Amino acid sequence: MATWQREEAVRQRASHIAGVLVRYGFGFLVNDLGLRRLFSLTGFCRSGDCVGRFKSEEFRRLVQKLPFMLEELGPAFVKFGQFLSSRQDIIPMYVTDALKRLQEKMTPVPFARIEQIIIENLPGYGDWFDYIDPEPLGVASIAQTHAARLKDGRRVVLKVRKPEVINQIELDLKVLQKIVDFLSKQPEVNKLINIETSFAIFAHSLRKEIDFSVEAGNIQLFQHLLADSGLARTPQVEWELTNENLLTMEYIEGISMEAAVEGVDPTERRQLAHKFLESFLRQVLLYGVFHGDPHSGNVRLTAAGEVVYLDFGIVGRIDPRMMERLIENFIAVQNADVETLINVTMEIGHFSGEINWQNYYEDMAELLYMSQNMTHGKIELGKMIFGMMQVSQKHGIHIPERLLLLGKAFAIAEGNARKLDPDINFLEISRPIILEFLRKNLMPQMSETAMLASALDVKKKLRIAFSELPAFISGLTRGDKKIPLELSGMDFIGDKLDKSINRIAYSVIIASMLLASSIMMHAGEGPIQSEIHYTGYYLLLISLGATVYLFFKIFRQVKK
C-alpha cells in the first residue's frame, strides 16, 4: 500500500471514530483530542455537539456509555479502555469503574472463516484433530476459542486470532499515536502523566498480546514457576499446533470463582482462596513475573481443588531491585511505618519541583491509618497501592508505569480471593513469603524474628552508606578528603612518618572494603542476585585496584 493510501486509511478511520464519539455524546472530544485539526475532518459538530462541557451529574451519566462506545470502536479501544481503568491515580474513580465493565463480549466470527484460518496455519489439520466444535467456548475482541479433540483422544482448546485483527489494531494505533502526539504538547496533560511513555507501554503490550506464540511462552514459563509450590497450575501447550495465530492447549474442566461461591463448601472455598492468593503473591514477591489480568474469567477451580490460571496475554515483570522495594513496602505497611513507606516510594518514583514534605507525610499517614482502621487491620493492599499512587501524584511524585499493572493485578486478585473468603488477610498470607524472600536473598543466616525486626533498618543504612562511598573514595583520591591524624612534637620525621601513616590508613580502608565486600557477596547468595551481592563484587574490584596501586607506590618509594 502506498504512503498516501495508508494516510487516507488513517484519516477515514479517524473520521469514523469522530462520528462514534458524537453519536454517544462525546462530541467535545473531537476538538479536545485534536481529531478535527489532525485529520482535517469536516461535517462534524454542526449542531454544537463538539463544544461545551457537562455538569458533574450529567457527565457521570454520560460516562456510563463509555464501555458500549469502546466496544463498538473495536479491539484496540477495548484494550485501551482496560488499560485506562488502571489509572486511578489520575482518572476519577467513577470513570475507571465504568471502564472496568468492559466485557469484550463480541459477535462470533462464523466457523467457516475460523476454519479457513486454521487451514492457512495448519495445512492438513485433520491429521491432528479428530473434532473441532463449531460453537465457540468464548468470543473476545482479539480471538475466539473452540473446544476440540485430538486424534489420540485428548481434549484441547483451540484459540484462534480473528481475521483482520492485526490490520485493524495497527490502524487504530496510528490514529491514537497522532492523538497522543497532540496531547503531549498540552502543559495541563504533562502535569498529570507522561502520555507518550504510557501509550508506548500500552502499544507494546497490545502487540505482544496478539502474538499467541508469546502467550504460549508465558504459559510454559508459569508452568515451571508454579510447579515449585504446587499451589496452582496452567494448561499444557501443544507446541506443534501453536503459532502466532493459533494456540492449542490442554482443556481443563473447572468452574469460575463466582460459581464456586454458591457451589463449593465454605471450608474448601477458604482453602481455594488462600491457594489462589498465595500463588499470586509468590509470583510477585519471589518470581518477579506475574499474571497481569487474574480476573475470575482467567482463573478456574477444579473438582480436585486445583487453581488453574488461563490467558497469559498480559504478563508483568519486576526486576530484583523493584522486588526488594516491594518487600520493604509490605513490611512498612505491616508495621504502620509511614516514614519508610515514603522513603521507598520516593526511591521508586521520580519528581521535579518543590514538594511539601510535611503535607505528603500527613496524607500518607492518613491513608495508612484509614486503610488499617476501616478494614479492622485487614488492609486491602490493592486499594492501598492505588491510594499511594494517588497521594504521590497529588504531591508531584510520579510512580513508574510498570507498577500500574501490578497495582491493577493486586486489586483484581484480592477482589477475587474475597469472593471466596471475605475475611482473607492479604498481609498475613504475604508474611511467610516475605520471610522466604529475605532468607534466600538478603539474610540467609538470620532468624525469622530478627529478619522482620532489622530488615528495614539494615537496608536503609546500607543504601545510605553505598550512596556516599563513591564520593568518599573520589574525595580521597583527589585529595579533597583526608583522614585526620595529628602527631605533635615529631616534626623532625614528619615527611616520612606522614607517608607511612597514609599508607597504613589506606591499608585499613582497603582491608575494610575487602571485608565488607566478602560479607555482602555472601549476603547476596541465592536464586535471585540482589543489589547487595553486586555491590560486594564492585567493592572487591575497587579494593583489589587500590591494593595494586598502593603496592606500586610503595615499590617506587623503596627504589628511590
TrEMBL record:
UniProt record similarity statement: Belongs to the protein kinase superfamily. ADCK protein kinase family.
A GO molecular function held by the record: ATP binding
Keyword Transferase: yes
CDD domains in the record: ABC1_ADCK3-like (cd05121)
Lineage, top ranks: Bacteria, Bacillati, Bacillota, Negativicutes, Selenomonadales
Bilayer-spanning residue ranges: 504-524, 536-555
Designated gene of the protein: ubiB_3
UniProtKB keywords: Membrane, Transferase, Transmembrane, Transmembrane helix
Pfam family, one: ABC1
Protein kinase domain sequence ranges: 131-473
PANTHER family: CHAPERONE-ACTIVITY OF BC1 COMPLEX CABC1 -RELATED, PROTEIN ACTIVITY OF BC1 COMPLEX KINASE 7, CHLOROPLASTIC
Name used for this protein in its record: Protein kinase domain-containing protein
Keyword Cell inner membrane found: no
Organism (species): Methylomusa anaerophila
